[in-house]
Structure formats: structure tokens, C-alpha cells
Design a protein that fits this description.
6-stranded mixed β-sheet, elongated, 3 domains, alpha/beta, single chain, 444 residues, Immunoglobulin-like, 5-stranded antiparallel β-sheet, Rossmann fold, 12 helices
Length: 444
């Protein structure tokens, strides 16, 4: 009986009809001739409610709903969710579907309405964009069913609690992998960079294309083929590429819902995949007040899966970062000269200068690229019109902050440290650009 009452709902249409009956009774005090009509209306409403209830509750399990999702969600991307609902009632019904989404989304209004014919499944599709890694738990699907009368609703609780793990953005990783393989990186803002350095291990003779070094023209092959041919040499491979991720408090800032830390983690996964496809060895280092984890660089088949799992498990208390401990760990555990892609953030020149000595020590042993972020909200503030004197002062402070970022870049370059200053949304593209540039110049 308790289960019956938990699934039994009276609709707005019932209360409207009941309100009409009550109005007739009230009017019958002044117009006695209306009293019989009020009684008849009461009986009709009672019969209609009973009939509607019997039609909906006469049998069990006349509605089924099934939710299907990917086993893993990609952080920061749209992930598809599909729900299929089917009715075995022998008459058309109207349904309202409310899906209980994971609490991380803070969404309580994910509902769908539709008319459902007997034995004709209907599909609902929607997308979810998570902005934090971790385990997300879906609740049940609540399906509210009503007949054509629409006086009563029956609630079905379909499905079970289901968990989905949100991993670093493997969607973004695959997108750039496919673009790299098909040589279409330029379409997404990734520059095609001409090689400057040379590895003299010969690979093949190929047709000349725009951007090839004219000094590599093979004149004998050109004479035989009657069009320009060039020698192609193998790129340096098996270089060590480490993504060093700062998990300190400066990486907590959110942009478009995603923290700087998660932007860095997504970019690290994408660049590690590209490096492995290029024949290099990829590894990961994470740190804050101490070095939390080191995944040694490797090019083995399972390395990308190890990197994905390693990045997924990263947690942080957003404490003050210790770059000195990062240097000590790299010196002890990374013996070969490597490319260190350091994802961090500096908001002022003084904060960078406090860490400069540690950065210089790392740069002496490795090729260090310091990657930090523009504040896009400050940029928007600068380009918005000032309405009063207070906003003029605010814009002045914002311009000073942007200028300090440029001073940081200049200071790091003066000490021989490669830099990338990027918008959070462009982090992956700009990181790949830098990697390809260093690769083309033969610096790694």
C-alpha cells in the first residue's frame, strides 16, 4: 500500500476540475437550482478519477526506461546520454521523464515530455559537460504517466544508481591525434613549422611541397622525374618529454567552469599522446608543497593508459607550490636531458622572481618550457567601456596586471627559459605548437 501511495499523484487538471465543482456548490447557495448539477459533477469527477486510476494501476511494470552512457566521461567536453522509454499500455499515454543527475552538475530540472504510443519506444538525448574529475553517480529515472483524462499520474522509478568516472579530456586528445595523423593541425590553429635543425639519417626522396628546405633538393632525382624532389631525413626520436603540473593554489582559478589545473591535465594528456605518436617518451610529474607523483617517461604500448589513469587520480589541497622540491626531484629521478613542460601560473612579477632560481636550475639540466595563463576575464574588463571614474581606475589596474604578465615572459626569456603565455581555452593548441617548434629546431 505504501508503494502505491508513493507512486500515486493527482494532477493540476484534477485540482482545476475539483475547483470547478466547489465553485458550483458555492454558487448553489445563491442559486439553489445549481445544487443538483454540483452533485452530478461530483459523481462524474469521482468516477473519472477511479476509472483513470484503474487504467494506470491495473497492472504492474507497464513502463520501462533504460539509460545508456559511455563508461567514461571526458572532462570539459560534451558527453552524450541516451534514454529509451517504452510503454506496454494498450492506449497512448503522456509521460514526463525526470532524470536524477549527479550532484556535481547541480541540475534539478532535466525533464522531458512526450506522447508515448503502445510498443513504440521513444528516445531522449541530451549532453552533459562535467568540469571536475572523479566519480559521478546517476540516480533513478522518474517517469510520470498519465492517460488522456490526465486526472491522475503514476510514477515509475526506472533504472538503478549508476556510476560514471570522469577522466581527463580523452575527446580532446583523440581530436588532436587524428589531426596530427592527417596533417590537418593548421586548421585548428596549430602551425606547420619548417624544420631548422637537421638529423642526417636519410629516410626517403619525396616531391617538393611549399615550406620544404630548398637546400635539400635532390637535383639528380629532379632531373629524372622532371619536377622538384627533395631528400627527407628522420626526426630525432626517443626524446624524453615530461609534463610537470603545478597543483598549487594559483591553479585553482576557474575559467568556463574548468579549473586551471584541469586545463593543464587535459593538455598534458593531449601532448603526451602527440609525443608518443612522434616516437618520443612521455612522462608526468605533479607537485604542490611537495612532489606528489612521478611517472617515468616511456614509449611502451601501455604508457598512454598509464598517463590517463595517473592524471585521473590527481587530487590537491591547493597549497603553496615548492619549485625547489620540483628541481630536487627532477635532478634525482630524471637523469637524461628532457623537455620539461611546466604548467603553472604567475599573477605578478614578484611571485615569479621568488621561484626564478629554481627555474634556472631546472633549465640548466633540461629544456624548460614555462607555460602559464592569461586572465581572460581581465582582458574582457580592459576592452569593456568605462561608465564612471571607478571603472576607469579598475581598468587601469587590469591593464597593469596584463602588463606584468608580459614582463614575466620577458624576464624568463632573458634567463634562457622558453615560455608560453596562453588563454586557458587555447592551452592545448599552444602547447602542441611549442612542442612542434622545439622539435623542428632540433632542440629536443
Amino acid at each position: 500500500m505504501r508503494k502505491f501511495f508513493r507512486s500515486y499523484y493527482l494532477t493540476n487538471r484534477f485540482y482545476q476540475a475539483l475547483g470547478g465543482v466547489i465553485a458550483l456548490f458555492l454558487l448553489s447557495y445563491g442559486i439553489p437550482s445549481l445544487f443538483p448539477f454540483a452533485e452530478i459533477a461530483t459523481y462524474i469527477l469521482m468516477v473519472a478519477v477511479v476509472g483513470d486510476s484503474l487504467a494506470l494501476f491495473i497492472k504492474n511494470r507497464l513502463i520501462s526506461a533504460e539509460r545508456s552512457t559511455a563508461e567514461k566521461f571526458s572532462n570539459g567536453d560534451e558527453n552524450a546520454v541516451k534514454i529509451v522509454v517504452e510503454s506496454t499500455y494498450n492506449f497512448p499515454v503522456h509521460i514526463t521523464l525526470i532524470d536524477e543527475l549527479p550532484e556535481q552538475f547541480q541540475m534539478r530540472d532535466q525533464s522531458f515530455e512526450a506522447k508515448l504510443e503502445p510498443f513504440s519506444p521513444i528516445t531522449f538525448n541530451y549532453n552533459l559537460r562535467p568540469v571536475k574529475r572523479g566519480v559521478y553517480e546517476f540516480g533513478v529515472m522518474n517517469v510520470f504517466v498519465s492517460s488522456r483524462l490526465g486526472l491522475v499520474q503514476r510514477r515509475y522509478e526506472e533504472g538503478k544508481n549508476a556510476e560514471v568516472a570522469v577522466y581527463p579530456s580523452f575527446v580532446q586528445m583523440r581530436k588532436y591525434e587524428l589531426l596530427a595523423i592527417s596533417n590537418q593541425l593548421k586548421e585548428f590553429g596549430i602551425k606547420k613549422i619548417r624544420r631548422i635543425g637537421n638529423n642526417m639519417e636519410f629516410e626517403q626522396i619525396k616531391n617538393y611541397v611549399s615550406g620544404d628546405d630548398y637546400r635539400k633538393v635532390n637535383w639528380k632525382a629532379t632531373a629524372r622525374k622532371n619536377h622538384l624532389m627533395v631528400n627527407q631525413y628522420q626526426e630525432e626520436k626517443s626524446q624524453h618529454v615530461y609534463s610537470a603540473i603545478d597543483k598549487g593554489r594559483m591553479m585553482q582559478q576557474p575559467f568556463e567552469g574548468l579549473s586551471l589545473l584541469d586545463y593543464a591535465i587535459n593538455a598534458s594528456l593531449a601532448i603526451s599522446n602527440i609525443a608518443l605518436k612522434k616516437g618520443d617518451k612521455a612522462g608526468v610529474v605533479t607537485f604542490q608543497q611537495k612532489v606528489n607523483s612521478v611517472l617515468p617517461s616511456s614509449s611502451r604500448n601501455m604508457q598512454l593508459n598509464l598517463i590517463l589513469e595517473h592524471l585521473y587520480k590527481q587530487k590537491t589541497a591547493y597549497k603553496e607550490s615548492d619549485f625547489g622540491r620540483l628541481y630536487a626531484t627532477l635532478r634525482r629521478k630524471v637523469n637524461q636531458r628532457s623537455l620539461i613542460l611546466l604548467y603553472t601560473n604567475f599573477e605578478s612579477l614578484s611571485s615569479m622572481q621568488r621561484q626564478l632560481s629554481s627555474l634556472q636550475k631546472i633549465a640548466r639540466q633540461h629544456l624548460l618550457v614555462c607555460i602559464f595563463f592569461e586572465n581572460t576575464e581581465v582582458d574582457e574588463l580592459i576592452h569593456s567601456p568605462a561608465k564612471d571614474l571607478e571603472e576607469v581606475y579598475t581598468k587601469g589596474i587590469a591593464e597593469q596586471l596584463v602588463y606584468e604578465k608580459k614582463l614575466i615572459v620577458k624576464e624568463l626569456k632573458a634567463h634562457g627559459i622558453q615560455t608560453v603565455l596562453t588563454r586557458p581555452q587555447d592551452l592545448t593548441v599552444n602547447t602542441i605548437n611549442k612542442y612542434l617548434e622545439l622539435k623542428s629546431r632540433g632542440l629536443i
